């Protein structure tokens, strides 16, 4: 008989430090599979769940960015170290893709990909990725591979420098602290349109000021896709939204078919994920580093 317990970051009380617990290994139900987790990404939403922003029932196990290997299957089926998952929503990974690379794609990746798809911009159009963090640094590369003119927008020059060094670099980088008119002049030099600005902007940040900036840089009759979740809600000027007839689209994640498309696109184009590796026992240290802003890109727990 095999082991009956596993190591996991189980949240038993809201707002408590992350710690490793021994929990029972789940048994897959019909349509479910049991996955041995090899890597699990840390997402801002994990922090929100820990803070009880979603009223998530206790106890629950942290991370929703897993990658691993199927160990057992339940009936009707043709991060922790183990996890039961619905087989109908799994994404098959390429054989040569590292688990630590795949894990961040399962939320950050499919979130930004879904946002780009939902922008509905025809190939050859222009898209601005606002916020070059865990989602945004993937998004600039993805949008470029999808055939768009891409503008990276962030408050940190270091983040812009990072994506400019990638093989699939943006066409233009804009520092968010620059005056709007200066930024629009830069966009004019790379984007040809009947109206000034970008066909669409995808908000990959929850900083309140970013939403008004994105609206100002989006062209008349353009689209804004909202991924960021500001604590106090979204506020934008009616001058830059209503008077410009901008369409606002909320987006959560890509669906399963889109997620598989995204993984294929990512792999075929050899895209890059900036990540910092952590051990399971370092989960609280990882969380503190995220809160301090001392690491860029994605934080990933790698499990031996």
Automatic annotation (TrEMBL):
Residues 134-266 form the Alcohol dehydrogenase-like C-terminal domain. Keywords: Metal-binding, Oxidoreductase, Zinc. It comes from the Eukaryota. GO terms for cellular component: cytoplasm. Its cofactor is Zn(2+). Residues 29-77 form the Alcohol dehydrogenase-like N-terminal domain. SUPFAM superfamilies: GroES-like (SSF50129), NAD(P)-binding Rossmann-fold domains (SSF51735). GO terms for molecular function: alcohol dehydrogenase (NAD+) activity; metal ion binding. Belongs to the zinc-containing alcohol dehydrogenase family. This is Enoyl reductase (ER) domain-containing protein. It comes from Penicillium salamii.
